[in-house]
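Lab notebook page, bench 4
Experiment: in silico fold of construct C2
Operator: M.H.
Input chain length: 265 residues
Purpose: comparison with the prior construct
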Amino acid sequence: MRPMLEWLHNLPTFLGALVVCAVFVVPTLVGSYLLQPYVGRIFKGERDSNTVLGFLLNAFALYFGVLLALLSIAVFENHNKADDAVVGEAAALIKLYRDLHGYPEENRTQLAKILDTYVDEVTGPGWVYQGRGQANPREIEILTDFHRQIGAYRPPGQGESIRYAETLRALDSFVTARRLRISAGDSAIPRIMWFIVLVGAFMNVMVIWMFDLKPFSHAVIGGTISLFIGLVIYMIAVLDAPFKGTNGIQPNALVEIHNQTGMHR
């Protein structure tokens, strides 16, 4: 599922955080002067209503805070898994490339050139597809060509057969790592959870407005809490799409393959 707040990834970090915080803080400040007098009438006349509302706010803040904490941990772990998937693919690709050193010159050159083309495609146009959680058709064509080339090779002796079998195992590991990298770009928090978070943030402000306080006090307390909630939600939204925007994971591990394996020489 595509991230609900995908548009945030097109904004610089500071501007994105500012927009999200403004969405929460501005209505809270306006409501503290315009809506709070009406909401505050719900408990008007109740004895020591602020104490009762304090217990309500503590209980609500506990559950809402736990929800935000769990979401933060979940998206952080997904972000790390996505990063590990890129590194894992790079490691598998290096292993596959080095296994080609024992092949005849003609076969080694052709296969290495295909892998070189694959890395250029992944780190270039293919990374746009990665941000969408989609497989790049051009990458599939390149890998199909590699499978065809490696399948056409016939090892002349027993030693070469052992090396050929090892290459096939390395190829299988590489394909698996690539699949994990692509699938990591499609992970996202379900929309129902975003709905619960936004409703919870609104309810949090409503509970604060029920307190018998001066409008300025409501504005300070509500604005501070809304600012923090906005920052947390912005962080969750950005980490929810690990390959998008300026904060997204970059193909640095794959780019380094050219330096470590001697490609492009």
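Observations: The radius of gyration is 27 Å. The chain has a mean pLDDT of 85.
Next step: discuss at group meeting.
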